[in-house]
Give the backbone structure.
Amino acid sequence: MSKRILLIEDEVEMQELIKNYLLNYGYDVTAFIHPKEAIEDFKNNRSKYDIVILDLMLPEMDGFDVCKRLKSYSDIPIIISSARGDIGNKIYGFEIGADDYLAKPYEPRELVLRIEAVLKRAQKSDRLKISDFSVDESSREVLLEDYSIDFTKVEFEIFLYLLKNRNKVISRDQLINATSLHEDTKNRTIDMHISNIRQKIGDDSKDAKYIKSVWGIGYKFIG
């Protein structure tokens, strides 16, 4: 399956050059000129992308702000592609979560090599990093600011589903179907598991930092 790239680049000629070159190397590229449109698409379809190529000098928003917004939704790899190649911009880019920084002008082949290297590093780590949490799905280990959280199997499944669907309202039925719980599981059982999860991560239902109750529907991870 080809890797899927979100390209945010407002210079049309550069966008076409990058897009066509990456297509020739088998990548599936979705390109945007306007960062707000790209952010909205990523927010609703984040699972369809493997990596982001991001320009800094964009209309409506600075690329650094775009980088921070994207990273707030998912720890997707981001390569900054910009004419702002001074060391200060590079350092700041890495500080806010960029995985690589490529100063323009550059040969398109170098971008391909950088993409391959970043994706390879990402594949070596099974950890999902969202908000204050780091999750290893294979070992079912959850770290909260480097402290291990001892979840049961079902608690882990519920927490992981909420985490992966951050800022989306998830019904109790969705949680039942997404876990190893039986179809006839009662809603109050889900509520009990959520209560246990909250207790273990130090969350408060009345003043939620991570898991918010949505009356009459279910829950939403907001951290």
The first strand starts at residue 4 and ends at 8. Residues 108-124 form the longest helix (17 residues).
